[in-house]
Amino acid sequence: MMLFDVLLYIFVVAVVIQIIYFFILFGKFAFLKEQKQSPQNLPISVIICAKNEAKNLKKFLPSVLEQDYPNFQIVLINDASYDDTFEVMEEFANIHDNIKLVNVVNTEAFWANKKYALTLGIKAAKYNHLLFTDADCKPLSKNWITEMSSCFSDTKSIVLGYGSYTKIKNSFLNKLIRFETLLTAIQYFSFAKLGMPYMGVGRNLAYKREDFFNANGFMSHMYIRSGDDDLFINQIATAQNTEICFSEESFTESTPKTTYKDWIIQKRRHITTAKHYKTKHKILLALFYISQLVFWTLAIVLLIPLFHWQIVLILIFLRNLAQFIVYNKAAKKLNEGDLLIYIPLLELFLIGFQLSIFINNLISKPKHWK
């Protein structure tokens, strides 16, 4: 029984680590009270980069144009599309005089590189405060710009928002995608409140144009196809210059993948950037994932032979109770409360998918920006 004794001790350590993460780290966001910011009405340039998004622009761009905000510009970037994307952009620009068009043509040096297209769009922006979203994304209220821009201040030049995904009834994949999105948001909001901001999502992100140029834009990681949002924030964000925005009217909503194959391809692309994060962020994120994996693996291994099963069950209960308390608070803040009853199942599936994606990325390189 010596082996099982050792495994039990490791299991206890994993449980302790998980509970520390839930209450000390993730609790920073979960138990945070929203502080309503006063509208500032800063001039804002909304940046939308699109590649082969003609249908989505027709569907979602009106929700950006209808924002109740006194002074904003929309910079539409056509990233070398081969569908009718640019024609659709021109149609909107002919009607709305606050639209600026940027038509990007592929170059040999920056072939199919979204960061190059975004750089051209940022250079074309009229205003210093930039707000980013995607072509397949819509603000969930007419006060999206107001809410996100209100978080800027003399010291806060980066605003991290929440980008949700559309709910699809009776779809386990949809719940899995939304759970992964929720967990990611809990992590980057919590890290930011701890003074260690490490990423944001391009579906809902804001920063100052001057910060972009002061950091030489994406040049330090231009060779990495992904990471126009998370790697750039990882590069420039500090405890002093970063704020989070999680008011309900600040949310955006995107169209989720509807097949496991498409979602896995997307996640493989996203995960490739994590190895380029700062060392402290990589260690903290890896420790959380490893402790998750160890917890569930050893829970099963120890319960099969009923080794000290009473102790094991008590530890499982305490860990899952801590998780539920924290995730419940966070999920309600982000309007994802319907996921709570599925958390154990979703967590197990997500751990398995992340492990398989990590292994696949070691074997072959993922596809990138369309």
Number of domains: 2
Q: From the alpha-carbon coordinates, what is the Rg to the nearest angstrom?
A: 22 Å
Please state the average pLDDT score: 92
In which order are the strands of the major sheet placed? Answer: 3-2-1-4-8-6-9
In what range is the share of β-strand residues?
Answer: 5-15%
| Shape summary | elongated
Spatial separation of the terminal alpha carbons: 54 Å
Mind telling me which CATH architecture of the largest domain this is? Alpha-Beta Complex
Oligomeric state of this protein: single chain
CATH superfamily of the largest domain: Spore Coat Polysaccharide Biosynthesis Protein SpsA, Chain A
- The name CATH uses for the topology of the largest domain is Spore Coat Polysaccharide Biosynthesis Protein SpsA, Chain A
Strand elements, count: 10
Task: State the CATH class of the largest domain.
Answer: Alpha Beta
Largest sheet: 7 strands, mixed
Number of helical segments with 4 or more residues: 13
Low-confidence stretches: none
Structural class: alpha/beta
Helicity level: 40-55%
H/E series, N to C?
HHEHEHEHEEHEEHEHHEEHHHH
Keywords summarizing the entry:
Spore Coat Polysaccharide Biosynthesis Protein SpsA, Chain A; 7-stranded mixed β-sheet; 3-stranded mixed β-sheet; 10 strands; 50% helix; Glycosyl transferase family 2; membrane; transferase; Glyco_trans_2-like
